[in-house]
């Protein structure tokens, strides 16, 4: 018998002074049995750091051809393709050919990915690559529950995440194209 996804609920207060975004969000996120807690935390953080109208979670790791997050305009056209982790350059090439903005949130090998993409990916100079702190992701992953109450403040690339009364601090850093 196949294992089913775990549904995790996130009540989030988002204060992103870098982008002028102040929202209260209630998200329900399905965690596939093969999805690590670190990946799930990175996926939720990417969702918060890119928060905008029309942004949705993809179908997850079980849908191999869909990214972690997609943003559509009012006509249903994909405007942003957002990956989490270490996608292949062929996947990034495919995404960039859609004409959508392509964003990647990774926690290891970001510079190597940027260098590899430079000679292979269509519109590689337009890729937006961001590095998240792996220790920060692991710390937050250790606090996951089925119901999560988060308060995230973003300022100057620093992330301040309060989870159940505990403060976790990390960074998100833009990786320059190679």
From TrEMBL:
Q: Which residues form the signal peptide?
A: none
Entry-linked InterPro entries: Restrct_endonuc-II-like, YaeQ, YaeQ_sf
Coiled-coil stretches, from where to where? Answer: none
Pfam families reported for this sequence: YaeQ (PF07152)
PANTHER family xref list: SUCROSE PHOSPHORYLASE
What protein name does the entry list? YaeQ protein
Task: Record the organism.
Answer: Enhygromyxa salina
């Amino acid at each position: 018998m196949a294992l089913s996804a775990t549904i995790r609920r996130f009540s989030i207060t988002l204060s992103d002074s870098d982008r002028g975004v102040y929202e209260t969000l209630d998200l329900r996120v399905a965690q596939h049995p093969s999805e690590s807690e670190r990946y799930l935390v990175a996926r939720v953080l990417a969702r918060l750091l890119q928060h905008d109208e029309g942004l949705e979670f993809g179908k997850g790791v079980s849908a191999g051809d869909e990214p972690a997050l997609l943003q559509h305009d009012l006509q249903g056209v994909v405007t942003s393709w957002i990956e989490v982790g270490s996608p292949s350059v062929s996947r990034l090439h495919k995404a960039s050919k859609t004409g959508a903005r392509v964003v990647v949130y990774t926690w290891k090998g970001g510079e190597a990915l940027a260098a590899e993409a430079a000679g292979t990916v269509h519109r590689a100079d337009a890729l937006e690559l961001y590095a998240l702190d792996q220790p920060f992701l692991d710390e937050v992953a250790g606090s996951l529950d089925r119901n999560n109450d988060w308060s995230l403040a973003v300022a100057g690339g620093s992330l301040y995440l309060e989870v159940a009364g505990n403060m976790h601090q990390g960074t998100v850093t833009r990786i320059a194209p190679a």
